[in-house]
Amino acid sequence: MLAKMPPLRIELQRIAEMVPASARVLDVGCGSGELIEYLARNKNVDARGIELSQHGVNACVAKGLSVIQGDADTDLAEYPSGAFDFVILSQTIQATRQPKSVLAQLLRIGKGVIVSFPNFGFWKVRLKLALTGRMPRTGALSHAWFETPNIHLCTIADFVALTQAVDAKIERALAVEEGGDVRELSVPGYWDNLTAEGAIFLLKRRPGMQAPA
After folding, report:
1. Looking at the chain, which runs of residues are DSSP E strands?
2. Which of 1, 54, 98, 144 has the fewest CB atoms below 10 angstroms from its CB?
3. Would you give the distance in Å from CA 57 to the centre of its chain?
4. Dihedral sign (CA 194, 178, 153, 68)
5. pTM of the entire structure?
6. Tens digit of pLDDT for each residue in 11-66?
7. CATH number among 3.20.19.10, 2.60.40.10, 3.40.50.1010, 3.40.50.150, domain 10-119+152-204
């Protein structure tokens, strides 16, 4: 009998809801594999992962998950175009060295791309920075500046601009509130950029979009 899984955090639950049953999925930066394990068990998904840390890879392999060690900045080019129905990048894009290139690669290898990230435009982040003059720490951004893995923090407005730069189409956008509530973003704008602690975007490649060099 399979061991009972702990519940997914709200953000991962919403990502899992976007993935249809029996899809082919690649989770980039999959950590210890909570999401792909859930998708494989509950939605019969052909779920695979790529993870930078050896500790995370070991945890995934111990669960019987198909995960390899790799770097999103350098190794995504090895995957063939259109290899997956969905590619997921959860809480990872801000830790990559070349976010634009990584997003373009995701759109090349996945028919759909799901990206989640902490929103540096959140009002508490702005207020703490304005009042203290120091890099803020919140529930979503919990590391001290000198030990954080986040090297390219962005706001929701920044990410929307990035989708335009890579010619991606926003199919769906969700705001993740501080307490864990999630709401739809029809047109991500100033208020969402101010009040959301994080965001989840479902993207598709536009017809005729050029593959990254």
Report:
1. 24-28, 46-51, 66-69, 84-90, 110-118, 168-176, 182-184, 198-205
2. 1
3. 18
4. negative
5. 0.91
6. 999 999 999 999 999 999 999 999 999 999 999 999 999 999 999 999 999 999 99
7. 3.40.50.150
